[in-house]
Amino acid sequence: MNIFYYDVAVSLPLRQCFTYSSELKIKKGTRVSIPFGNRLLVGVINKNIQKPQLLGKIGAIKEIISIMDAYPLFEKSIFNSILWASDYYHHPIGEVFNTFIPTQLRKINNNKIEPIEKISEYSINEEDKKFNLTKDQNKAVKELSKAKGFLPSLLYGVTGSGKTEVYLRLAEDCIRKNKAVLILVPEINLTPQLLSRFEDRFDGEIGLYHSRQTPSKRLKIWLKAKFGNIKIIIGTRSAVLMPLKDIGLIIIDEEHDQSFRQSEGFKFSARDLGIKRSQLQDIPIVLGSATPSLQSLKLVGEKKFKKVDILSRVDGRKPPKLIALDINNSPLIGGLAMETISVMQNVINKGEQVLVFINRRGFAPLYQCGSCGWVAECKSCDTNLVFHQSRNRLICHRCESAYAVNKCCPVCNEDEFHFHGAGTERVEEVLESSFPKTSIIRVDHDSTKKVGAMEAIVKKIHSSEAAILVGTQMLAKGHDFPKVTLSVILNADNGLISPEINALEKISQLLIQVSGRAGRNNNLAKVIIQTRYPDDINLNKIKTGNYMNFAKQCLDNNMKMNLPPYSTLCLLRSSSPTQKSNLDFLEKAVLTLSNRRGINIIGPLPSLISKSKGNYRHHIYIQSSKKTFLNKVLKFLTVEFDKWPESKKVKWAFDIDPIDIN
Ligand SMILES: [Zn+2]
Ligand SMILES: [Zn+2]
Asked: How many Å lie between the centroid of ligand 2 and the Cα of residue 307?
């Protein structure tokens, strides 16, 4: 009798696979149930291996209990994308598998991977296409549909240029060839509008996949995609490895968006993983944006990406004008200057809409004793508590802990408190008193939490006449608000002076994106940027609205300084209850690497948020010109760490291509 040995990935935070045996030949990527300690777990067959030599010394190799499905989870190229991700991001393989399979397949239960009977028929609704494409759109569709095999294309389309229509035409092409298409968006809130465009265009099921769906819904969509029942999927980053049968195209909309990066647990970029997948599957990928990432622009420069432009807006109108408003001598009410309020009044009087952008939710970011200056802080994080009027609580935006509002100061016992700064709630309150007859619509994390809340808000915005929309990032992304003719940006300064990684890239993208929400019905749309730095060189360049020029300058600068995308960066993060444990561990890492050529190290440094959920946080930067070289160094470090007593006292993680130092 033959016995086969397998490397099995187990969903545990361990950077290794485990060896199991079976009398059966099992395909890679198949789910099996295995004994682990005294538990029964789901494992995934990683590879078939030779009979282990150490057999006997390490105890008997356990047997696989059962094969759970007749089909593997993924076909070869997606399987290999997962191996790549685990290797590139240095993350435990079992957890990487788990990220891309529905929750219900991660545990021992009755769910099985098997075909669902009904196949959806697709047809194109020609009625939905009774309008002409612009010249640029037409050219873009022609250029992009030429692609065969792996070819990444950057679709640079200014805001309002009709990128979605290009996506629809490319999807039609796929459907005609009986191929499937995957469309990724950065935020769940952007899925409803895209879904309705696709539903208008196609008869046949359009699948949605994101984390706010129920586990059983997600499993159903995943199985339908896998067995070819669904040919069009719209999803967020967890959908990037959706096992669509006969996939012909991947589209990543708003490719510059930071939300494609998962920042907790398995830190990966769905954009980058999407590109890797399309390479391994040898299919085209289209990355769309009005403010492309520096990474993509660099690859265009090196002719590794093709670039296709849509430079004119669908309505033929000019982009809005960006104006910097000096607020150094203006008193602010809830973050708003008097001059801003009077410009807003004119717009409201004309029956038009205003968008007010502030990158902070809640009422006031600082709650302070008027007598001794005591400031309310989170007990377990190094952050000030934000007063939320709607909940009458002080809330930590780091760990979401809610505290009762102090009646008297814990230090001096006085009972007079002041609010400082402004968040969305405070701006909303100020606007309600300044514009009592106008409807004020707040869009932030708190107001959109409930299922369907965002759709209701968007509907209200479209059906209202004069109105003021107040919101965070959510308002800045991808939506069309045709009645908005004025946008106001309240705290752009934070972005201009931020020490964050690629801060200028982010703030320029944000300003251009916010301005892009406005002016679709009006030639005279304006964007007011309130600033204390009206003469800032970068602000003045961004103000011209020419993103490409500014991005090119950022690229030149980063090249000179050897910063990403011209080098690869890894943050080695460490957190522990004491600062000393972090520093002991990180300093030993620095020492270990000190003689290595080809890498630069900075640190140890405290993270921007130096304490979170009761733990101190520090990091070192490890930088190299070559990705493959950095990968080797990190592998070497991982092996070293295993031997160190210092590493046992901390929680450490590599953050590859980090987007922030928070
Ligand atoms: Zn006090
Ligand atoms: Zn906290």
From this structure: 44
